[in-house]
Amino acid sequence: MHCRDTIATPLNLGSGEMISINKLADIAEDILGVKIKREYNLDKPKGVAGRNSDNTYIKKLLGWEPTMTIFEGMKPTCQWIKKQYTDRKAGKRTAS
Q: I need a labelling partner for 77 at 20 to 30 A (CA). Which of 2, 15, 69, 71 fits?
């Protein structure tokens, strides 16, 4: 994709879907068929409830925004990470 207006301009490119870290962990568990041990330190600041991409600028600039859901994007990402992990564990060369 090329747009003269985006040269040397960072663009926030992601899902507008609001997601929490817990929900992201749920998605990874579902995709990989695992259960993640979660530990919470409630004495620490809580921060924000979730994150999402503000696609206002990219929509204005390109007239387009991503439509893929977090789950759709996480599936190939999790599968790639799993392959990297199992390959490295088996002594195979992996991406660096």
A: 2
Q: Decide: 40 and 95 in contact? Cβ < 8 Å.
A: no
What is residue 46's predicted lDDT score, i.e. its pLDDT? 83
Task: Give the model confidence (pLDDT) of 3-31 as tens digits.
Answer: 777 777 777 778 889 999 999 999 999 99
Domains parsed from the chain with CATH numbers: 11-38+49-89 (3.90.25.10)
Alpha-carbon distances of 96 from 4, 74, 84, 85, 93, rounded to whole Å:
32, 20, 10, 12, 9
**Are 31 and 73 contacting, i.e. CB atoms less than 8 angstroms apart?**
no
CA separation for the pair 30, 53 (Å, rounded):
23
CB 57 within 8 A of CB 12: yes
pLDDT band per the 50, 70, 90 thresholds, residue 53:
confident
